[in-house]
Amino acid sequence: MKNFNIVNVLDTELTCYPDNIFPPGEQKEIIQIGLSMVDLRSLTIVKRVSIPVVPQMSKISQYCTDLPVGLTPNSVDKALLSQRPAGAW
Known about the structure:
This protein has helices spanning 62-65, 73-76, and strands at 6-14, 30-39, 44-54, 81-82.
């Protein structure tokens, strides 16, 4: 019998600017991946993982830092993941 009482919930945070207007040469990209395991029986989070990602094509703006997630350039400097431009693999 399969157990479907645990689900994985994936969330991504992206670089952002007010009104979604990016400076020339910058574009939206992932700066954090969040993963939570949720027990559906008790509706509780069993495990939570947050993985910062170093942006390559934009900067983390003050606007983005001021949001509740509060990511800063320093908080992703030690990230394990780094995005690469298309074709760089």
